[in-house]
Amino acid sequence: MSFLDCSCISNTQVHSFSIEDHYEDVSQQHLSRDGSTCALSGAADSDDLASLSADASHYQLLSELGWGFNNLSQVCMARHTPSGRLVAVKRTNLDRCTEDELLQLLNEVLLCRLFRHPNLLTSRLVFGFCCQLWVLTPLVSYGSADALLRTYFPDGMSESLIAYLLHGVLKGLEYLHEMGYVHRGVKASHILLSSEGRVYLSGLHSAYSLVRDGRRLQAVYDMPQHSPALLPWLSPELLRQDLHGYGVKSDIYSLGIVACELVSGRVPFQDMHPTLMLLQKLRGTHCCLLDVAPFPLGEMGGLKVSRSGVDSGIGESVATGSLTRAVVPDRPQSPTLKNHSATFHNVVQLCLQQQPERRPSASALSTHTFFRQVRRHTRDSFLSLMYPAIPFCSPPDTPTSHPLFPPCHGLAPRVDSQDGAWDFS
Length: 425
What we know:
Largest sheet: 5 strands, antiparallel
GO molecular function, one term: protein kinase activity
Domain Protein kinase: 59-371
Protein name: STE20 related adaptor beta
CATH superfamily of the largest domain: Transferase(Phosphotransferase) domain 1
Mean pLDDT: 76
GO cellular component, one term: serine/threonine protein kinase complex
Family: Belongs to the protein kinase superfamily. STE Ser/Thr protein kinase family. STE20 subfamily.
Oligomer: single chain
Order of helices and strands: HHEEEHEEHHEEEEEEHHHHHHH
CATH topology of the largest domain: Transferase(Phosphotransferase), domain 1
Shape: globular
């Protein structure tokens, strides 16, 4: 079936299609090995939505969660009325997509349906409705790590929570790399967390295949789409665009940037001009963890000292250090001294090596001493790590009509909000 044989051309209902009829499902070999990584959330297929109906009239749209894909896709919380199950629906207005955007959307949809791993946000239920493409995914109730930083942890997360998040991302990257793909979009806004403790890696629209003509290449040279928004996380070898190219180790560098982002609440290189950022990375300048306060305490006397999210988190619940902090919308630099563990320092140092061959693989890094603490977590201890964050749920006043907006007349214009739950850029 051609991707252009959709309702935006024919104005008829487009039913779900089965990518499994055209691709061999080679992912089951990985599920048996990685299934143990999601002990808090049950079996690997617990989020499979294939049993739900592919009929837009069976879904009640409840609230907007975010936007993505050049603001062409709106993500909403929805309820499957026959079963009462809450899901996330990503609706893309195909009438407004260019040919390149249609091809990029097709690639993302195919990858989301082809991949199967507990730590990748994928979808096996895709259908058309009028001029829109609907992609259904599980509802990830805590939202993205970026939203958690902005709303609940402005001065950074605890090391225990960071280890939990990064370990789930590493398992997803290990699967992607073995399948022959480099992600190229690892950042906090693409790391999602469910209320059951499942860590998801999203952003597959940036993924790129290393396989050409049946052979796996060691390096590729393609520049990601919308790369200006990804610059702080991209590796030096990807930005250099020379004859050496880049490979899967590029994602490991991005993971190191994410670690610095999660522990400080700020993105490294964020305040630099893109040209200066590029020069700094190519010269080998890399960020490091700061174990001292960025400002003298005397100059920050007007702020309330907070211990939330800045302790090492090893052997101490983050809830204990969070009881005295009020949630603030801004991102002030924490005046509290941050004492990071030696193992955390080592993980960041390994990820941010200038030479990609000196960085560990995703599978090797997941066995690092820093991640041993992840095995000790139960559901109760996970919830204590998340304090004071709370998962969002169905709004009390749900709409009585089916769609939020008339589907055949495009999506409603985006309303920028500082409290948006998810970022799909």
